[in-house]
Amino acid sequence: MSRVSETAMPVSSGFPGSGTGEARPGSVRLEGVVKRHGATTVLHGVDLAIEPGEFFVLLGPSGSGKTTTLRILAGLETVSAGRVLMDGADVTTLEPGERDVAMVFQSYALYPHMTVAQNIGFPLKMVGTPVAEIERAVADAAAKVEIGHLLQRTPGQLSGGQQQRCALARAIVRQPRLFLLDEPLSNLDAKLRLETRLGLHKLQRSLGATTVYVTHDQEEAMTLADRIAVFMDGRIVQVGTPREIFSTPQTVAVAGFIGTPPMNLLRGTLQGGAVTVSGSRLPVAGAPSSSPAAVIAGSAAREVTLGVRPGDLRIAPIGLPAKVERVEDLGDSSIVSFVAGEQLLKAKSDRAPTVREGEHVYLAFDPTAAHLFDPQSGARLGAGTPDSSKERHG
Amino acid sequence: MSPSTSRSSIRHIALYAIAGVGLAVWAFPVIWGLLTSFKTERDVLAYPPKFIFEPTLANYREVIFGASSIVPNLWSSFVVSTAATLLTMLFAVPAAYALARLRYPAKRASGFYVLATQMLPPVGLIIPYYLVLQKIGGLDTYGGLTAIYLTFSLPFAIWLMVSYFEDVPYEMEEAALLDRAGRLRALWHVILPQVRGGIAVTTIFVFLNAWNEFMFAVVLGGNRVRPVTVAMFNFISVEQTQWAKLAAGAMLAMAPVILIGIFAQRHIVKGLTVGAVKGGGRRG
């Protein structure tokens, strides 16, 4: 699996290289892709470069344009402007069947009148593959997803998980250059989703095929992806490794979307290395040179949005005064909700809760854990936290 | 017996009673016709009506082998209905698919046009049809009557088939396109097998409509092409109505309809309920 050297910024997602040449098998690029439905613009000029063999996740809330982007890659939607390139070749106007891509739909889209074997073998039958070869390939693909014993059943006789694997087998049987997966786990129950996620990751690694995966589930995205593109309102707002996205969100919207619970966002005033929130000065100074506070230290007072991850928030002898609103003991961790002034905050800890509902406490955080955003544009202020450049492994 | 069991039994009895009344209302003319077809003309006219009588096959012999045989008329009906049904389905299936699936200019307008043709009172069309067929020599011909049947069976079949095509999830067709089937092979291998029930139901309805049609047949047919519905009139004259022969003829004319109903019952019920249980497959 090749790694990518691309930085998370700028948010237009950038390309590892420039120009359309030197493309390796399995590479995918979107250049200025715009999609309009009548007067509504669904995608506002999406640029994207996906490396060969990469597990690339399109993450975003409903209606953000991620599924439209996937369907444009599949050729199921036309573009209003821009280009789609695969292996360096312009495929923008090619029909879905001419692109050599396979897709697993959210609904699986299995053919209900065919057996599992016929479903899996269908793409090969359509290109005139000899029957014996189809049988061999079907058996091979079915074995890879462990449904070899179900070949003579029809989709109606399969469980949700088995149907999902049948759809996967149909996608892998013809070894396409690109796999497209549209929320393939969303119809499974929580336990099965977890198991299937692991299996999917293993399968992708063993096949080494470029995979584009759409989900609105950030946990899925974080655990599966080599890189993630975060979609908001028809735009890619950030591209990066899961760790980059988590530790250095480039906009306040990404910060509020990623993480469970999401980042606490507080309105305050920044001056002299500290942010004043509800009358309390919270130091964001003393951070390494790349920290947001250091970058803008010494500047005049300005309004900011201060972001602190729930995991970075702790109870301290001094800090932001808050009242404990609710305590949720999850067994292996706890989530405590606070009210500070009129603002709601959440803290997450690996330990059992030590506070009671109604108790008054002070909240603090490591100054280096602070994220600062411009309240008007929502853009991140400063370069990011020290560990933001680290690659995620595994 | 618990109160809930008792309430449930009462509900069942009430439902069966309502169904029984409905069945009796529907079956009465059929049973009356069936009994009449086995009576002599004297028994038919007996008052009070005879429920116990000596059955005879004379009426059937007469309407099959006699001077007033309706066999040629059954053949006329069969030819016209079969031709109209085959041609209707040949055009209706692709047309309905296009209306349900493809994007093309004036799609809504053409869809409305199909529906609008169903709204015209048929009686208003008889004169123009008569004049057109007269001009082209199509009166009293199989071709002429079949063509006229197409004018109402085709919109009906398209309108019915569109809903079946719309019930097939888009993703399934898209999956077939990605599997390199192309649109025509996706239609053949993936879509059509899933609307089989709908095709069966529509075929049956179109055939039965054509088989039972009377008004166009009586005006646009003639001595050569005289469907069985028109031939029934031979048994009604100013002097008398030959009720027993009329009933025997009616029973013979009904036979194919009832046979189709019995053999295709499963298909008809499945086809009529497919949209109700499956739900749409439109993407979100």
Overview of the molecule:
The complex is a heterodimer of chains A (394) and B (284). Chain A is α+β, with helices and mostly antiparallel strands and 394 residues long. Chain A is built from 9 helices and 20 strands. Chain A folds into 2 domains: 28-250, 3-Layer(aba) Sandwich (Rossmann fold), CATH 3.40.50.300; 260-384, Nucleic acid-binding proteins (OB fold (Dihydrolipoamide Acetyltransferase, E2P)). Helix content of chain A is 22%, strand content 30%. In chain A, the strands form 4 sheets. Chain A has a 6-stranded mixed sheet, with helices on both faces. In chain A, strands 13-12-11-14-20 form a 5-stranded antiparallel sheet. In chain A, strands 15-19-16-17-18 form a 5-stranded antiparallel sheet, with no helix packed on it. The radius of gyration of chain A is 24 Å and the shape is elongated. By secondary structure, chain B is mainly alpha-helical. Chain B has 2 domains: 3-59, no CATH class; 67-278, MetI-like fold (Orthogonal Bundle), CATH 1.10.3720. In chain B, helix 10 packs across helix 14. The longest helix of chain B has 35 residues, at 3-37. The A-B interface holds A 67, 74-76, 95-98, 101-103, 105-107, 109-113, 122-123, 126-127, 170 and B 169, 171-172, 174-182, 185, 189-190, 193-194, 281, 283.
Distance between the termini of chain A: 11 Å
Mean pLDDT of chain A: 86
CATH class of the largest domain in chain B: Mainly Alpha
Q: What is the annotated CATH architecture of the largest domain in chain A? A: 3-Layer(aba) Sandwich
Q: Over the alpha carbons, how many angstroms does the gyration radius of chain A reach?
A: 24 Å
